[in-house]
């Protein structure tokens, strides 16, 4: 009822607008995000934190969501809405949004290709950098750890339909998410391959992966790779 009331009031306002002004202003002159019936208008709550094109904040506090697979973004929005992933601002923002709305939002940001934000890089010791490179590019067979690129793509841009890109994420965000998976605060559809992987990482491993990723130059092409279940080392519920 609240939304209906807003729309009704908006309609009265539009009807009361000067006909001359409405006729002289070309439709294309109105920014998409100001048009009432546009996806750009509907995602204004998202862009407040994640940027107008989902590029994330310059300091990396809010992660890049642009270009990530639509399936992944949709799964996260559903998880925030249903409470299986916890971050109060996001839980509140999407609490009452239907599946169709969440899919539209996910598809919108998945289609965006803004430039990567420049981030500050902290120094890494040679040992930490080497460990991070090993885990990201080759894995650690002795611990049953596959390479990150086996699922997240050679360019770390993710894989359709449900694996996110890791390029351009700040170290603290990566550490936070891997730690949440390790302790069971973050979950994905079963079989939860990330839970299986994170549980085998030490805190030092997590820091090494995050640090190494932050030192990589983001690829020119930010598009995720096509689905390749044969290449994946584990069955992953997010790829269904």
From TrEMBL:
Alphabetical UniProt keywords: Heme, Iron, Metal-binding, Signal
A GO CC term attached to the entry: periplasmic space
Domain of life according to the entry: Bacteria
Post-translational modification: Binds 2 heme c groups covalently per subunit.
Any GO molecular function: electron transfer activity
UniProt xrefs under Gene3D superfamilies: Cytochrome c-like domain
Sequence ranges assigned to domain Cytochrome c in this UniProt record: 127-217
InterPro entries on file: Cyt_c-like_dom, Cyt_c-like_dom_sf, Cytochrome_c4-like, Cytochrome_c_Oxidase_Subunit
Residues that bind heme c 1: 46, 49-50, 90
Binding positions (heme c 2): 148, 151-152, 194
Signal sequence annotation: 1-21
Matching Pfam families: Cytochrom_C
PROSITE patterns attached to this UniProt entry: CYTC
Protein's name according to its UniProt entry: C-type cytochrome
Organism of origin: Telluria aromaticivorans
Source taxonomy: Bacteria, Pseudomonadati, Pseudomonadota, Betaproteobacteria, Burkholderiales
């Amino acid at each position: 009822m609240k939304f209906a009331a807003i729309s009704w009031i908006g309609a009265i306002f539009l009807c009361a607008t000067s006909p001359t002004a409405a006729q002289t202003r070309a439709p294309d002159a109105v920014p998409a995000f100001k048009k009432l019936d546009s996806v750009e208008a509907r995602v204004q709550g998202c862009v407040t934190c994640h940027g107008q094109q989902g590029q994330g904040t310059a300091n990396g506090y809010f992660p890049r969501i642009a270009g990530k697979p639509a399936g992944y973004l949709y799964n996260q929005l559903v998880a925030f809405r249903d409470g299986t992933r916890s971050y109060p601002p996001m839980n509140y923002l999407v609490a009452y949004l239907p599946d169709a709305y969440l899919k539209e939002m996910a598809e919108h940001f998945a289609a965006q290709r803004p430039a990567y934000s420049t981030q500050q890089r902290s120094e890494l010791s040679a040992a930490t950098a080497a460990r991070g490179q090993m885990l990201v590019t080759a894995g650690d067979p002795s611990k049953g750890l596959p390479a990150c690129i086996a699922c997240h793509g050679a360019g770390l841009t993710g894989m359709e339909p449900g694996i996110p890109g890791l390029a351009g994420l700040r170290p603290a965000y990566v550490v936070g998410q891997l730690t949440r998976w390790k302790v069971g605060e973050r979950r994905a559809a079963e079989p939860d391959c990330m839970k299986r992987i994170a549980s085998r990482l030490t805190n030092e491993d997590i820091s090494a992966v995050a640090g190494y990723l932050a030192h990589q130059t983001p690829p020119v092409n930010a598009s995720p790779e096509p689905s390749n279940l044969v290449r994946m080392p584990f069955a992953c519920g997010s790829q269904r």
